[in-house]
Amino acid sequence: MExxxxxxxxxxxxxxxxxxxxxxxxxxxxxxxxxxxxxVGQALFIGKGEExxxxxxYSFGYAYPFIDAGTLGDTLPYLTDLYVFSYGFxxxxxxxxxASDDMWMIDQSWETGVRPILTLTPIDASGRFNNNLVSALxxxxxxxxxxxxxxxxxxxxxxxxxxxFDFEYVLAQDRERYPEFVSLAARMFxxxxxxxxxxxxxxxxxxxxxLLYQGIDYRLLGEAANRVMLMTYEWxxxxxxxMAVAPVNMVRRVVDYAVKEIPAQKISLxxxxxxxxxxxxxxxxxxxxxxxxxxxxxxxAIDFGVDIRFDETAQCPWFRYWQYxxxxxxxxxxxxxxxxxxxxxxEYGLTGAGYWQLMNFFRAGWLLQESMFQTERWVxxxx
Length: 383
Known about the structure:
GO terms for molecular function: chitin binding; hydrolase activity, acting on glycosyl bonds; oligosaccharide binding. The protein contains twelve helices and 16 strands.
């Protein structure tokens, strides 16, 4: 496996010839569309090995029930688990199902040998995120027991293989009650061979201030759940200033803290499968970026004839372009930024990679994952 960065004058034919691979393979692996134009600075995956069995890395990602069936079908072969997003609940502990039916996803997952996981978030009956639901639930033991019973019934009826807690903005007063609830659910569901996991806000210290962090206790949640995922993305976000979504220097700080509180073999690294396009100049409270996929970002660079740059500190690609008199700045993910994150997984002995989200298919990223974790030099640490 190699990564090739496009230079001025390159073509798919010249690159394929220089790398000793069929041009059709280069086009297929990197989802290069006819007429096969490239952007200077574009990173390409160069696969030179044969396909092997699925690597031992625990690989999963989140998807809404309205994901395109073809996209899901292309993605499932690279996954261990599919996290179906998302179920909610009421203050009384009644489970709220997604607005769109998810049964087809569950069926397709099992047919591919992938375990579907029920994701639980504080979404109310109206379909809106409601942070008050967390405190209401954690303060009512009867509601907790009702919710656990409904979760168990739903997982059995709809053939889910596990449960994931994605509770954000947990209040400081619930810092201990939240892990207690996760532990209660894990003890119950582990008896029936259901895995229980939790997504954790990206902390770098135990007493980190901020509503996103103060109610999340890494040590207690690491003890309560079977696995955790570090939500190591959204430094660059839609309403914030232009920057990398998951700068590896910031991601490293989170991992460095996490392994001090949680066994590395329980930890999955969160990886973004998207980027943002910001109109400039950025104005706080006014500017809002649009979300875009890897392919959309590269196509923008091609269409506007601009070079893709690479930030060595963030280990992330970016570029600027003009449209209708407005300058834009784009930050996105490519195989170089993915490799930097996979290198962190190896370095710290983590055992999983979790993707937010799977609504767009990035073949080169999946091929890179398979290539990097199919080497004898990488040992899955499960002891």
